[in-house]
Each structure stands twice: as C-alpha cells, then as structure tokens.
Amino acid sequence: MPTKTFEFQVEARQLLHMMIHSIYSNKDVFLRELISNASDALDKLRIEALRDDTLNADVSDLHIAIEADTDARTLTIRDNGVGMSHDDVVQLIGTIAKSGTAEFLQQMKQAENTAAAEGLIGQFGVGFYSSFMVADEVTLLTRRAGETTGTRWASTGEGTYTLETVDEAPQGTSVILRLKPEDTEDKVFDYTDPAKIREIVKRYSDFITWPIRLATRAPAAAEPPEQENDEAGERPEPETLNSRKALWARSRDEVSDEEYHELYKHISHDWADPLEIIQMRAEGTFEYQALLFLPSHPPRDIFSQDNKRGVQLYVKRVLIMEDCEALVPEYLRFVKGVVDAADLSLNVSREILQQDRQIQLMHRRLAKKVLSTIREMKANRPENYASFWREFGRVVKEGLLSDFDNRDTILGISSFATTHDAERPTGLQEYIERMKEGQQHIFYMTGESRSAIERSPHMEVFRDKGLEVLLLTDPVDEVWVGSVPEYQGRELRSIAKGEPELGTEEDTEEAKADREQQREEYAALLTWMTERLGEDVKDVRLSSRLTVSPACVVSDTGDVTPALQNLYRAMGQ
Ligand code: ADP
Ligand code: MG
Questions:
Q1: Which of 206, 287, 362, 461 could form a disulfide with 342 if both were Cys (CB 3.0 to 4.6 A apart)?
Q2: According to its UniProt record, where is this protein mainly located (predicted)?
C-alpha cells in the first residue's frame, strides 16, 4: 500500500509546535496520557462487546503493554482495545476537535511569562500530542476491532504526517515512540529505564483497572526482580505495574490526594487538579459507592449543546457506561467521577437508565450530596467556595429553574454581586441580616453589567436611602428571577419593575396621602403625556424612585425585561 503524506490542521500544527518546544516542565505525563487513552480504548471495546455479540473482536485478555528497548531507544505502548479506523485516525489524530482550541492558542500567544503559559496549558491538556515532548518520531499502528485492515500513522510532529493501510495489524493500538536523547536540563529522562517506567505508572496510573504490563528488552540487571518461570529458557512473565485498586472502594485515609487527583484527570481529561473530592457510600437494599469531583475550571464547552456530561457508571467494578447523564442533573453537569452500583443489570441502555427507579434515587442523593458539599465549602472553606462560584455559579443557578425540590438549597448556596460591597459577592442570608429597619423585600436589578446597572436611574433612590441591591448580570438570572418568588419569607423584588415599596417613610400613611394629592395635581399633565407617547408606553405615572433624573422607563412587574427579550431572541424564540 502506498504511503501518503497529509498536513496537520492549523491548530494541531500550532499545538505540536508548542509540544516540541516543551512548554510543560513535567514531561513524564506523556505516559499517563498514552495509558489513559489505551485504558479508554479497552473500556470502549468492553462496552461495545457487551452490547453487540456479533462484534468480531477478541476480549479474552484485555490489557496494556509497555515495551521498552534500551538499545533502539524506543518505547511502545500497546493496547488490544477498540482501535481506530482509517477515518478515525485522520479525524482524531490529525485535527483538534476540542472546542476553544483557537481561543486557547490565542491566549497562549499573549501569555506574558512561562508561569502564565504553564497555568494555561495546565487547564488545556493535549493528550496524545504530549508524546512529542519526549519523542522525535511517533508511529501509531491501529486496527479497529471487527475490521480486517489496519492503519499506520507516523509523524515527527513538524507539519505533516503519513498514513498507510496495512494488512497485518493486531487488534487495538500501538504507539511507538522514538525517544529524544536524554537531557537532564530539559527534564527528558531515560524512559526506557524500567525503574523510571514503574515510578511513572505507580504515580499516575496505579488505579487503571486494566493490567499494565511491562516487558523490557534491556541488560539483565535492569530486569524486574526474580519471577516464577515455568519452563527454563523462556522469558519471564511480564510484570504488572499497577495495583488496579478501585479508589472509591477504599476508605479516605488510605488514599492520598494525589491518587484521587490522578483518577480525576483520567476520567475528566482535565490536566488541572480538582477543587473538591466527594465520597459517598450507600448500604442496605440498594448498595453503591460514589467518588465525585468538582473541577477547578469548567470545560470550554460547558454551555455547548454537545458538552459531554455525567459520571462513569460501574457495576461491581466494571465500567458499563461513560458519561452517564441520568445520574446527575443538568445544572450539575460539571461534576465528574465514578458511581459503582452493586446491583444493576450490566446490559442497560441509556433510555432504560433514565426510567430506572434506582438510578432516579441515586440521582436525587447525588444531587443533594453535591449541594451539601457546596454549602459546606461556603461555610468552612470560603476561598474554595468563592473560586467555585466564580467558575460554576452561572451553571448552578440553572437549577433554580429545574430542580424545585432543591430550590431553597440552591438559593442558599448562591452568591450575588451587590451594592453593599463592590469586591465580594453576598449570599441571601447575609443580605437579609443587613436589611434596613422596615425593609420587607430583597431588592435586585438585572442587567448586562455591574456598571450598566449602577448607571440606571432606578438605582437613584436606593443609593440615596442606603438600601442594598443585588446586581444580577448573568443571562440565566433574567430567567430564574421570574420564577423564584421569595427566599426565607422575603420577596425578591426587581427595582426596575412596578412600585418598589421601599419599606421606608415613603410607605407611611402620610406619604401615601401626599402622593395622592400630587397625583391629582399632575393628573392633566400625565394624561397629556400618555396621549402624546401613545402606543410606545402603557402608562405614565408619578414616581418616588427618582432623586436626580426627571423621568425613567420601567416595566410592569409581570413584563418581559429587555435583557430577557434579547435572550429569547438569541435562543431563536
Ligand atoms: P482525549 O483522550 O482527551 O480525547 P487525546 O489527544 O488523548 O484526547 O486522544 C484523541 C482521541 O484519539 C481519543 O479521544 C481517541 O478517540 C483516540 N485515541 C487515542 N489513543 C487511542 C487508542 N490507544 N485507542 C483508540 N483510540 C485512541
Ligand atoms: Mg487522552
């Protein structure tokens, strides 16, 4: 078969360039990434075989093999998993489909120093391409399970790659790295050294459920410790490097944070550590264990339709579904982790899961647990909570529209920008504690930005009287405020709608009589104005809300606000 040369897509080329010029200081993670991909491929094949018994694939000894050749300076990571078709290879390896890549590369270019660049890349992650940090040539040989021909892909990472169809290829994928020379300054180690490989696998991939076996072709001294040999002269059994222990089944004090973090990175494909670890265990008639994570940053596609959400669903240590969305509500779609149930059918479809009573029960419990963890963060780890809310608050607030059972809890863990403090957002509880004598309601205003709201004439009287106003600037705020009437008996009141009812002297009998008198005095003027403005307004009335501006436009309490009109328009309604 002829070998053809192809060009990398622009973004892929730029990322590769960054890899070759080593922007990560920790190059060991290339092995974590390749093992993670191999493990995913094994999971996928297992799940596929479970669903489709006509699949012509061998699932008898699924594993990952690492082969190191010290003399040739090559390192091979092999799996007998699902593999890739010719088209898969072009799609998955030649292009970067990850959303936000272009934006990320732009930010990288503007990063002023290496620390800033490292921080950015730590949030991005480059998966397979990280092999170019340690290799000057990478070859990938793969065959999709069930297909007969394979594909060989090769590249030095500089602009182009070659593709070739091969008749003889084992099921699954082998990635063969031609390693760069050792360079202690640049932190490129001898990755054919078994001790180094063992160390990296232990550190980053110990929990991987598939066996990771090491075969070395190295001087005798570097061989693993004595192992049983059935027949003299045969190579020793390959050494299994990982303990394969399910972290969620172990008690918290047995497992280090680093181990939890590595599991999180494998599951989420995130390169940054998670913010919180949540562990749960249910005993009794319906047993399950859960290990959940709150990430420190949202994925770049959190607001996109095809954002993958949900946690991994295991049944008795066997992964049966990636991204099981039935287990977590949509407004907690950033939660990652594992749920391992003791008693579920292995062969369930997504549709059946949505209906399953046990799944619904777990869904409710998991949601409550995540919310209570956030509440606990708010009380005990305010810095973590503040960072969490900055990153995910907009998403969590969607729950005010969908999760009526937990509405009060969600309101309780929410924070809002406020006129009380320009720097720190406030919770509703704190707002209520600061309410003025006689103030009945929680006042808020929605708008595009803090400064736009602050400039609004609606704010005048509130500023004047020192009444605190919440400044709601997220698009979702426009929507939920319409359906959340109160918090702890206090009505939520928009200051831009209807009469504000300040609860101060304006509402005394005397003031009301005053206003009535003024209304009579100005009746003729108001009628004239209403007629002149005609269709453009509903009504013209005297207002107590202004202190500086002569007039302002308000909407009625039940009306759609201008920002909401924009939102509906953006959603195509
Ligand atoms: P990610 O794992 O975050 O998707 P990677 O760059 O690590 O990103 O891998 C890109 C894609 O290439 C994977 O999503 C997968 O579809 C495919 N891939 C990589 N390695 C393998 C492998 N060993 N077997 C099968 N597919 C693989
Ligand atoms: Mg990967």
A1: 287
A2: cytoplasm
**Phi, then psi, of 69 in degrees rounded to 5:** -120, 105
Q: What is the best residue among 92, 131, 151, 301 to mutate for testing ligand 1's pocket, by most ligand atoms within 8 Å of CB?
A: 92
- Model pTM? 0.83
DSSP letter, residue 132: G
Give the number of other CB atoms < 10 A from CB of residue 303.
12
* Ligand 1 atom nearest residue 37's Cα: 20
279 and 252 Cβ atoms separated by less than 8 Å: yes
Nearest ligand to the C-alpha atom of residue 36: 2
Distance CA 509, CA 497 (A): 22
State how far the Cα of 309 lies from the Cα of 330, in Å rounded to an integer: 8
End-to-end CA distance of the chain, in Å? 53
Q: Which tokens hold the place of 47?
A: 């799940």
Q: Give the strand pairing for 442-446 and 64-69.
A: unpaired
SS3 assignment, position 32: helix
Of ligand 1's listed atoms, the one at least distance from the Cα of 36 is 2
pLDDT tens-digit profile of 96-118? 877 778 888 888 888 777 777 77
Q: What are phi and psi of 4, to 5 degrees?
A: -115, 145
Say which residues have a Cβ less than 8 Å from residue 284's Cβ, sequence separation at least 6: none
CA of 266 to the centre of ligand 1 (A): 12
CB of 33 closer than 6 angstroms to any ligand 1 atom: yes
- Cβ-contact 27, 187 below 8 angstroms: yes
Task: State the Cα–Cα distance between residues 367 and 371, nearest whole angstrom.
Answer: 6
Q: Strand 416-418 vs strand 336-341: parallel, antiparallel, or unpaired?
A: unpaired
Reference 197, options 46, 367, 77; nearest CA is 77
Residue in the structure block whose two tokens are 């020192």? 466
Asked if residues 104 and 300 have their Cβ atoms less than 8 Å apart, the reply is yes
Beta carbons within 10 angstroms of residue 561's beta carbon = 18
Query: Under a CB-based contact definition with an 8 Å cutoff, are residues 68 and 214 in contact?
Result: yes
- How far does CA 182 lie from the centroid of its chain? 36
38 Cβ inside 6 Å of ligand 1: yes
Q: Whose CA is nearest to atom 27 of ligand 1?
A: 37
pLDDT (tens digit per residue) in 310-365? 899 999 898 989 899 999 999 999 999 999 999 887 777 777 787 888 899 999 99
> Measured over all CA atoms, what is the biggest interatomic distance in the chain, rounded to whole angstroms?
113
- How many whole angstroms from 37 Cα to the centroid of ligand 1? 5
- Cα–Cα nearest to 392, from 409, 371, 408, 419: 371
Closest residue by Cα to residue 511 from 441, 472, 461, 558: 461
| Distance (Å) from CA 37 to ligand 2 centroid | 5
Residue 435 to residue 465: CA distance in whole angstroms: 12
Distance (Å, rounded) from C-alpha 263 to C-alpha 250? Answer: 13
Cα separation of 196 and 203, whole Å?
Answer: 11
Q: How confident is residue 94, by pLDDT bands cut at 50, 70 and 90?
A: confident
